[in-house]
Amino acid sequence: MMTPVEAPPAPRAIAGEPGARPWPRLPPVSSLGRAAGLAYRTAGDSEERVALLVHGYPESSYMWEAVLPALAQAGWRAIAPDLPGYGDSEPDPPGTWERHIEALEGFVEELELGPVALVTHDWGVPIGLRWACDHPGAVSALVISDGGFFADRRWHDLANVMRTPGEGERLIASYTREGFAAAMHAVSGGMSEQAIEEYWKGFAGEARRTGHLELYRSGDFEKLAPYEGRLATLGVPVLILWGEQDRFASVRMAHRFNEELPGSQLAVFEGAGHFVWDDEPERAAGVLVEFLRSR
């Protein structure tokens, strides 16, 4: 087991002046591509080094806005889809865990992606890792952040409300743009107004909101029992990247991943929460680029 390491106290400059943002902003939403019914953002043009980034809930591919250009500058082709019903992808009911895995599989097949470095966050972890385990050889490296893949895990309080008939419907119907923004800012000090605007797209209409409930209600952790021990058998390099103050997926899970995956690297960001890629975008991107540099 590799000794856990703290994330660096300041971003590592990839190019440009010290402390300056070393990569440009992503192009506007109008430039999104589409494949297998999913909108996606992409940067870079490498055919051999491809990174597939899978967002969490209630986010979209916008969460990777600092990561995609950083990976492109490091010589990677980085691709981040909006899962069905999130961002600029239309809903494709039902919005279950299994349906999202199918959508990811179809996306990879249509773009004919070879072995990818799979980068995951939150719900992207169980979606992406189930896909990876079901397709040995499809991944060349794994990055796991702030999401579980354990059959004995328990849901947090908000998820339990969403999983409860009646209570979940009342909660999801009650969200307003202002209330959503307040909730996100309460758990993320780095959440920008543009990020809020992008993530709010997932609440545009009844079909999208119903998909949120379908996702959580399909999230029975016993489904992961057949996958116990499977990640280690993939035999690929693993980076575990986590916000130390995560209220939804405790940092204890990061240490558990690190213990169960021999040779894995662990980066814990002090002061960051569950939305670590929004809280510390440049620092997290720098750690990811460094991990993938020799892959």
Q: What does this protein structure show overall?
A:
The structure is a single chain. This protein is of the alpha/beta class and 295 residues long. Strands 1-9-8-7-6-4-5-3-2 form a nine-stranded mixed β-sheet, with helices on both faces. 37% of the residues lie in helices and 15% in strands. Helix 5 (167-174) packs across helix 8. It is globular.
Number of alpha- plus pi-helical segments: 12
Q: How far apart, in Å, are the first and last alpha carbons?
A: 20 Å
How do the strands of the widest beta sheet line up side by side? Answer: 1-9-8-7-6-4-5-3-2
CATH architecture call: 3-Layer(aba) Sandwich
Binned, the helix content reads 25-40%
CATH class descriptor name: Alpha Beta
| Helix/sheet category | alpha/beta
List keywords for this structure.
15% strand; disordered N terminus; 295 residues; alpha/beta; nine-stranded mixed beta sheet; Rossmann fold
Give the arrangement of secondary structure elements.
Layout: E1 5-6, E2 33-35, E3 38-43, E4 50-54, H1 67-73, E5 77-81, H2 97-111, E6 116-121, H3 124-134, E7 139-145, H4 157-163, H5 167-174, H6 177-187, H7 193-200, H8 206-217, H9 230-233, E8 238-243, H10 251-260, E9 265-269, H11 276-279, H12 281-292
Please provide a brief summary of the model.
With 295 residues, this protein is of the alpha/beta class.
